[in-house]
Write a structure and sequence with these properties.
Two copies of one chain form a homodimer.
Chain A lengths: L4 H17 L5 H7 L6 H14 L2 E2 L8 E2 L1 H11 L7 H12 L5 H16 L3 E6 L6 E10 L2 E8 L4 E7 L8 H12 L5 H11 L5 H22 L3 E4 L13 H13 L13 E5 L11 E9 L5 E9 L4 H21 L11
Antiparallel strand pairs in A: 1-2, 3-7, 3-10, 4-5, 5-6, 8-9, 9-10
Chain A binds a DNA duplex through α3.
Chain lengths: 349, 349
DNA sequence: TTTAGCACTCCTTGCCTCCGAGTGCTAAAG
DNA sequence: CTTTAGCACTCGGAGGCAAGGAGTGCTAAA
């Protein structure tokens, strides 16, 4: 059953007001904000029905009304005015995006930081990659008699490198030959297969070689493992304390420690809409049942998506957050979709 | 003027008790904890003098006593019992240290995380490096017609690498030649000098070459800058909320946002004692005037020191924190001093 | 120097009251 | 049938007050 226009209007006023002040709205205050002259008594009748229907509730008999999650949901779906970003807002977002972000891993975490700082809510960020990552290319570089550099390029184009000690001196040919061996036998496969292949080689190569191979393969396996186990970054948890609903230290503590200790369980978007809003109990996770989350995702080229989420009280300013977050995500996509990944973007418009 | 033994004993009981419960201690409670039979009246006389001398204070007339910063200081310097770590504690620390830490940068941050998690206090961590870092070695690796890998080894033995786009195709000789050029002209110098050298080359090399040189030098400059501007990691700020002194949300918020937004101003050890305790107003920074900080540093080989600090209320459990932190720092030093990490530089050239 | 005793201080807790914002309901008006 | 005015009622919050208790300082005796 559909709500009448007037009911919707009232609902919108209640949500808007409650978002702004965190105080329940009374019939009189609402009456004043309604266009046309309507008495508070009329409003009261409407309010009673909205409560009946489950869109509003009152913290106690005889106090104003506040939205229920169902109320927020309707608001978000239909009533919310599209917040259009002001020139300053876009400028400010563009400014945060200005700094160049080198490594994919850092990129994601930085995106989270920017969002949190810019929006004034805690945020979290992660990369949603594909799971089947392998090594695309090995390169060993001689440094001096005691060490060499292992460079590993992964199938998602990330490059990692590390200095490694050389337990025994080697002649000039050894490293290139080992590189070659690695590139022919150890690329394009997963970590377990790397181990298997390595085992097969035990008696085909000299102990010296095997030592080196093992060293590099260890490193590669470690990288692959890291890449598979996607990490989540959270920032700005302390921003929660600004909100009156978290004056209760215990509540704040619960949510904050959930965000840092249980990052992996923070919601990820279902379906493939670019932006998603989860209101209060819509969150599966208990710790989030009294909070809302806005999630957006963006492209980082190469089958990878970045994901950034904003956490706040159910009374979160959905319109503004959604607008900003979506602009943010679009900008990021444009940045990385257009110019490819780790490259420079300083020659941009 | 020295305190009598009995005064010290009383002071110790007050500090111990207040650390444990966050409640002021009364004369009666103290009397019970004193060895031998002493009446509460006697204790009262002593307490009055300790207040007079500035070691204790009372939140209001007629309430128990709590330690002043001066009191804590004496406690820390003389009275505190060395907390010796139990087998479980050391085992637990060793377990956290078990995981291998690859990159120097991550290492430092991970050390902070472990400390925070293990101690139950917020913590911060940074690396104290030398300032005059330069590039020791360049290496460019061809990948395909559209990109190459730049590997840069810094003078502190860290190795960084990144995939770069190739704006124009190059022949097989170009990259090695450019590497050579970079290695002969751009190693061992600071970021400004890199820029200067590059300018000098503008009309000596082809535009194509210059483009590539510029690309790599940009990257190198960025790395040097990053290395010089040491970054600080903070973790576990939410742990603050566990302490009753931070039930006041505003206080908690102030300190927490200080820790994340003003990391650079967190205290670093003065002098060269391996561990330092800063109590309340001994902190220069206003935001920390009501908190205490315990700092320890550890070696990461190669002239570099890691630094990790624990932040808590002045009523922090100094004995335990100090013991654990120092064990932690020692273990880290041992781990990296002894062996492997980012590398040893045994050949001097 | 220590101790017992006592009056005093001041925080905490619970209780009570008052106030006001806001409600639901009823009855009259449109 | 809907809207409005009026009125009694509810309930949380603020303020005041008294009782309780933990702890003190002081004094006088051991």
């Amino acid at each position: 059953m559909e709500l009448t226009d007037r009911k919707k209007q009232i609902l919108k006023i209640v949500v808007d007001g409650y978002i702004a002040t965190a105080e329940p709205l009374g019939s009189k205050a609402i009456a004043e904000k309604m266009p046309g002259k309507i008495s508070s008594a009329t409003i009261r009748n409407e309010l009673a029905e909205l409560v009946e229907l489950g869109y509003l509730e009152q913290p106690h008999t005889s106090s104003g009304r506040i939205p229920t999650p169902k109320g927020y949901r309707l608001y978000v779906n239909e009533l919310m005015e599209q917040h259009t970003l002001s020139a300053e807002e876009t400028a400010s977002i563009n400014a945060s995006l200005g700094g160049k972000m080198a490594q994919v891993d850092q990129l994601v975490s930085q995106a989270g930081q920017m969002v949190s700082r810019f929006m004034g809510y805690p945020s979290y960020a992660m990369a949603e990659g594909r799971r089947d990552i392998s090594v695309r290319r090995f390169e060993l570089i001689a440094v001096d008699s005691g060490s060499f550099i292992a460079v590993v390029m992964l199938s998602d184009s990330r490059v990692k490198s590390q200095l490694m000690p050389l337990t025994l001196p080697v002649d000039g040919q050894t490293l290139p030959e080992i590189s070659h061996l690695l590139n022919t036998h150890f690329t394009g496969i997963g970590p377990e297969e790397i181990s298997r292949h390595l085992m097969n080689l035990t008696d085909q190569v000299s102990g010296q070689w095997f030592l080196l191979l093992n060293q590099v393969c260890d490193y590669a396996r470690q990288l692959l493992q890291e890449a598979a186990h996607q990490s989540v970054f959270t920032t700005g948890a302390s921003q929660l304390l600004k909100f009156p609903e978290f004056r209760d230290v215990d509540k704040a503590h619960d949510l904050m420690s959930f965000m840092v200790d249980n990052k992996e369980n923070l919601p990820v978007p279902t379906g493939d809409s670019p932006m998603q809003i989860l209101i209060g109990p819509e969150n599966v996770n208990d710790a989030l049942k009294e909070s809302s989350v806005v999630i957006a995702s963006y492209d980082i080229g190469e089958n990878m998506r970045g994901l950034v989420g904003v956490v706040g009280p159910t009374r979160m300013d959905y319109a503004t957050v959604a607008a900003r977050l979506s602009y943010f995500a679009e900008s990021l996509s444009r940045m990385f979709g257009a110019g490819q990944l780790p490259a420079k973007e300083d020659t941009k418009e």
